Amino acid sequence: MLTKKLPPLNSFLSLVSRRASHVTRQQYDVIVVGGGHAGTEAAAAAARVGAKTLLVSQKIQTIGALSCNPSLGGVGKGQLVREVDALDGLCGRAGDWAGIHFSILNRSKGPAVWGPRAQLDRQRYREFIQSELLSTPRLTVLEGSVEELLVSETNPEQPGHHRVTGILLANGSHPVSASSVILTTGTFLSGSLFIGQSTSPGGRIGDAPSSSGLSHTLKERLGLRVGRLRTGTPPRILRDSVDFSLAVVQPPDGHPTPFSFLNTRTHCKPEEQLPCHLTYTTPGVERVVKDSLHLNCHIQEDAKGPRYCPSIESRVLRFPGRRHQVWLEPEGLTSDLLYPQGLSMTMPPDVQLSLIRQIPALHRAKIHTHGYGVQYDFVCPTQLSPALQVKNTQGLFLAGQINGTTGYEEAAAQGLWAGVNAARCALSMPTVSLSRTESYIGVLIDDLVSRGVTEPYRMFTSRAEFRTALRPDNADMRLTLKGFEEVGCVSTLRYQEAVRVRDSLQDAQATLQALSLSSNSWKKQLPDIQISEVKNTVMTGMEVLQYNNVSFEMLASAFPESLSRHMEFSQRLKIEAVYRPHCNLQKKEIERIQKEENLLLPHDMDYLSLPVSMSQEVREILDRVRPSTLGAATRLQGITPAAIVHLLNYVRSAE
Ligand code: FAD
């Protein structure tokens, strides 16, 4: 996979412009508006499912651009990247191609919550995405701005229900028709940029906002509830002006772990990868923020910003007196620039310079581009179905930041799923959904459509009740087979690889299971391991592998004939053995819920006094709706499978 050569970018651009003249005369199955992280995954997924697809984006050069931090993955987010990859999406392979510093975050915790992450070379990432789109069959790319959505009433006797019929481009050319349209306008919908006291229209620095026509159609014509959110980005600093001797070096992992299940190595070799550096804010930073608040209109606005990726202004105002981490991250292998993660700011340019110079490693730093903030419209996502289709508008799908999320990974995951469903809708196939029990993508979409957002939503492992089963290592086993057999978005090549992995894992597990010895015999075979707490009982190889001090390599050296052929999967087998008992318990709970679907819930139940293991939100929903059966409770928006388990246990114990 990584041996391929990318075509020069110019060939992509010329192909796109050559195609443009034919575009408006055609009828498409799916049109995707916006070529960010949601839009590129959506367009590629729709085409993979078999739809004739058009991707329209304002500027061809910015397709696949990383608007803010040059990095991918992290805790919770890395799981999303692995799942997008398992469904044959683009971002995992793009990350392996463009990564220049790979690390696994959270390594001190269990592998279920490890966070695969990479620092990226911006240009390489964009080039990979563009090259993938270029070679995707059934996909056409057009440079242009979408001015309007074309919609019609589905039934005049049922006002308020619409059907999307296509788009209108800003240059006044003919309308372009399609059965499905996916909007992925990111931070561009009615976008305004903020720096110091000045404000200007824009979706990102150097880019115009999305047309007001689109916002108007969503709000006025379709009657959708729209809110306002904000985010910001730090200044970019010239690398040569930084005193790295005053920061702590953070090298990449010695053995980089690729994001993609198709890759066994990353494009950038370990010895070529670049370090990051860690430094901290000082009291001087806090003083500059406080002294310049009156010059900073972004921070005074009402719109909610990202709580988990806050600006330096929000950090020092929320936690005064603390020192805050600042990561100095390279923007590319040959780039002169550094991205100071943690220093997102919107104060005037001269104040930005005096602020960063309060940090010892940056005492003579020079700014290349100033930080700024952006405010934009988002559509309240409770108005969407789990297929990410707008409930009152057939054929209209939304994905990415427009749904109130923040981050490339969240956008990519929604984009892929919206692309799949928009294509299936256009091709008259039923829409498909992913549950919270099988994927982080399912958790993300369920959270959005059933609970909505009050601030930019980002993924965390704590949001997934079944996180021990939803691990980065097994995303292919959870999703690739389904993606091929039921969804239609996975290539034969990837499917065949997943089948090979599944068969090998099953074979290895069966061998380990059949390796059944008394604990005394195990101790003789493996004198170094301590399984003393177990009496002389019979234990299988899978059970022994659960022990902290036992590795698959140790078992394979004791039983080379039966196990050494499975060395390729040594880490996966170890992780599977450790989590299997807990996952089996959870699986049983899910099956128990399915069996108890018809359990009657007492009509006078005092839901508000249920144990605190159930959130206040869940108790309030149950109290308001008062479902008659457990099955009815499972179908309520905002009720998680974990809450249902608590409810079932509570009702049964009260009998
Ligand atoms: P985008 O990547 O924004 O892509 C939208 C695309 O749609 C663009 O290509 C645009 O040109 C195109 N487009 C828009 N309107 C039209 C139209 N009418 N016609 C044609 N094309 C159109 N994320 C974080 O996780 N943490 C952060 O701290 C953070 N800070 C950010 C700061 C700034 C200043 C910005 C701009 C973004 C920041 N992000 C941050 C957000 C991150 O960039 C997004 O989460 C991610 O890019 C969302 O992907 P998307 O596909 O939804 O939208």
UniProtKB/TrEMBL annotation:
One of its GO terms (biological process) is mitochondrial tRNA wobble uridine modification. Keywords: FAD, Flavoprotein, tRNA processing. The keyword Disulfide bond does not apply. The keyword Flavoprotein applies. It comes from the Eukaryota. One of its GO terms (molecular function) is flavin adenine dinucleotide binding. PANTHER family: GLUCOSE INHIBITED DIVISION PROTEIN A, PROTEIN MTO1 HOMOLOG, MITOCHONDRIAL. This is 5-taurinomethyluridine-[tRNA] synthase subunit MTO1, mitochondrial.
